[in-house]
Amino acid sequence: MDLRAREGADRVLLVCVGLLVLIALLVLESALRGVGSGAGFSAHLIRVGLALVVGVVAYHMGHRRLARLSPALFLVALGLSAIATTSGALRAGTRRWLEVGTLTVQPGELAKISLVLLLAHLVARSGHEPLSRRATVGWIAAAGALVLAVAAQPDLGSAAILVGIAVGMGFFSGLSISRQWMLAGTGFAALAVPLIWVFGLRDYQRLRVLSFLNPESDPLGAGYQTLQASIAVGSGGLFGSGWLLGSQTGLQFLPAPHTDFIFAVLAEEFGFVGVVVVLALYLILGLRLLQIAVEAAENKDPAGALLVGGFFLMLHLQGLYNIAMVAGIVPIKGFPLPFMSYGGNSLLIAAAAIGLAASVSRRNFLT
Amino acid sequence: MIHSEYLSRIRRRLAFARFPLWAFVILLTVRFWQLQIVRGEEFSDLARDNYLQTERRRAPRGLVVDRRGEVLARSEPSFTLLADEAGLGQLEEMGLLSVEEEDRADLEARAARGPAVVRSGIPFAEAAFFEARRRDLTGVRVEFVPARDYPLGSATAHLLGYVGEVTAAQLLLEEFVTAASGDLVGQDGLERVYNATLLGSDGYLDRVVDSRQRVLVSGGLRRTEPVRGETLQVSVIGALQEAAHRAFGDQRGAFVALDVRTGEVLGLGSYPAENTEDFRGDAGKFREMLSDPATPLLNRAVQGRYPPGSSFKLVTAAAGLAEGVIGPDTRYTCNGRARVAGRTFRCHRAEGHGSLSLREAISKSCNVFFYRLSEALDVDVIASYARAFGLGEPTGVDLRNESAGLVPTREWKRRVMGERWYASETASVSVGQGAVSVTPIQMARLTAAVASWGTIPTPRFTGPQSGEQMGGVLPEHFAVIRDGMRDAVVSGTAWRARIPTAEVAAKTGTAQVASADVVAPNNEDRPYELRTHAWFVGFAPFDAPEIALAVVVEHGGAGGAAAAPIGGEILRTYFEESPEMRIVGGGGEDQ
């Protein structure tokens, strides 16, 4: 095996992510035409450049150095989430954003990567042994607190992703089944607390669930989004309407075409063919991440394995949920499609994750 | 060893995660296949529905013109406010929906089927107001809908009827099978009967709009022009309608004028009459009329049932002559009263008319003569002549809901009242009292039959119809009756119908609505509802009859005093109008 050839950055990761970002630029050009002020194509280009820098820095920094910072980073994310919950910018009835000057920070995104880093760090600290009872309790407490803070914003979607990351990484770390139940139970309890707090679902959530169950019943209400997304997707057909030619996108029938529903724009303008290409890229990306994690475990680097496994969960739970939402098979949740949606927070975090994964990949062949 | 056990567990679990990843990606691929390939067409149609908006361009209804081409009904430019279900909610939210509780259910039912008329005839400023708020009021729109206008107003109200938005119930009828929610259709009168003729065909204009209903493209797409409905020429004379309307004033009643030669309706009116333009978008006004005791919506000319009183003597006289019971020279003596089958009947002239012939009995309207005649006629015989004159059945005029009236027979009484017929009742029937009831149009038709020596016309608004020759009554019989009618105008009860331009023959009637024994003898002293109905039936010119006329003034008093002047006024107007409109079928042959 030619180690030198693999010495550089992981090519599969780079090609997959690079293609996704390039396709996203094409789709965004179309999606942004109908969207009004504040959302410019050049702003996104700047963020892509910034993300590249973040990825390169993360790649060279390596996960071991970063792991030492992870408890501090985690506390920052927890603190920001709590601040956002109490005094964040109110948008659409929720407080998920912190506005710092012209920048908008989404603590939910930071929370996801910091949780992955923290858990990987805990595994590293335990040496080459399964997590002790104390470490497990610490992990459950940390994950529970973060989930609670995010769920209270309320951002149940991100909270559910956090639960998924925590439970999934618990599984990867070799936790026994009974401990995993504890972990899952704590996560779901933390999810449920804000629900009980507001006496059941909030109006918009109730509407979203109802509209998901029967989108045609209220075409101008909450079901409007699901229905318009399905129309955009379905009318794309095999080859799509062509770039910039989608009527659902161009005439603004599709809601949030540049963020939550960017996959619907792809489906409308590039058809089933475009959908299959992008799904394949996400599949290959996921398989490659898992492969890197498996190789890290084989190289006696359980922390690296957990880290990359956690990134896989972070990116793919969110990504596949977003696509399933566009396909109309799960209720609408407002989170972005990694690598593709407009907006900086998600892109920078994803770039950092890929940079770190590439660094683990490189180490697999250096040791 | 422990280390590698631990690490291989991590390795296995990470490797396992590939399976759910594959499963999700395959699941999503199948789902997108289903949405994009299997159901692609369906969603393409929905996408087109989103951006392609079809504007309906309403076709104006056809004109209705009278015999001379004078416009009776036309379509004027007007704005209409329409809303669908969502639109109703939006209007409500903005506090712009002012609909009375009773109309709400129907409006909502109509809106559920498509955009429904909320208000019509709205002013331009209001139309602009709604047009400017298109983005917020996505379910609301203002349409340019030609509104119906009736230049003669209430003078043609019952004749023309009115147009209104097709109701939810009407949409289920065969008659309105081509109508869509929001369509204006004829609701009554000629507007309803000739709805299919008058209805134009709407044009369509496609436009591309965005999600905020902003129009992006409006040219180069499908565009069809609206086509105005056909013009309906009817046989009536506008001037006659107006003259009758003026002559009736605020009295209740009806008139029908027929062309003796063709059966064409020259005029038809019912009073009180309201201008049906006022119905536009004002359901409150409409409801008010429905509950008005004066029943302004009832078309008395074809739906009103009245006892004919002495005007029925024309039937009794024809029966007596044709049956050979009397001849032109048969004389009876009237001393003011007659005793028939143990009951005493009075003549209107207490001191009596003395000895008189049938001709004199008709002109002076002597009751006793007919009471004597009735003793020799069975009620079923009188009934058979009444039926031969077209009473007791609808005339077949092209208006809806015509009444049949009633011609009593022995069998009828047995069936309905379960009693046998009394001879004294025949005496009542012979002078048009008792159970006999007729509509004004039946009496006009009967009069036309007398004028034309026995041809029963089919009344029609659109073009001449050939009449039917009645059997049994011979020309010499008609001669006696017609002479009696001429005398009635020259020197008898109908003298107030005399006009300088033509020789008129007529018969008056004063129909009791209650027995004179139980109410005040003087008509003016009775409560309004118990006063007599005043009748006038007549034709002119005597030698070559053109127009036959029936007038009834509800609770108007004596026929000679109340109805004959109105009849005279209508006839005077007819003969003063330009001669060309009096030509047979003059311009009426349009259909």
SS content category of chain B: alpha+beta
One letter per element, helices H and strands E, the order of chain A comes to HHHEEEHHHHHHHHHH
The span between the termini of chain A is 14 Å
Largest sheet of chain B: 5 strands, antiparallel
What structural category do the secondary elements of chain A indicate?
mainly alpha
Largest interface: A-B, 54 and 43 residues
Number of helical segments with 4 or more residues of chain A: 13
The helix content of chain A, as a percent range, equals: over 70%
What proportion of the residues of chain B form beta strands (DSSP E)?
A: 15-25%
List the uncertain runs of chain A.
1-5, 213-219
Rg from Cα of chain B = 34 Å
What are the segments of chain B in which pLDDT stays under 50 over at least 5 consecutive residues?
Answer: 585-591
Describe the structure in your own words.
The complex is a heterodimer of chains A (367) and B (591). With 367 residues, chain A is mostly helical. Chain A starts with 10 loop residues before the first helix and ends with a helix. Chain A has one domain (8-366). In chain A, α3 packs parallel to α5, α5 packs antiparallel against α6 and α5 packs parallel to α7 (177-197). Chain A has helices at residues 11-34, 41-61, 63-87, 107-125, 133-151, 156-172, 177-197, 203-213, 223-236, 247-250, 262-298, 302-326, 344-366; strands spanning 89-91, 94-100, 103-105. Chain B has 591 residues and is an alpha+beta fold. Among the domains of chain B are: 81-144, no CATH class; 238-284 and 302-582, Beta-lactamase (3-Layer(aba) Sandwich), CATH 3.40.710. Classes of the chains: A mainly alpha (367), B alpha+beta (591).
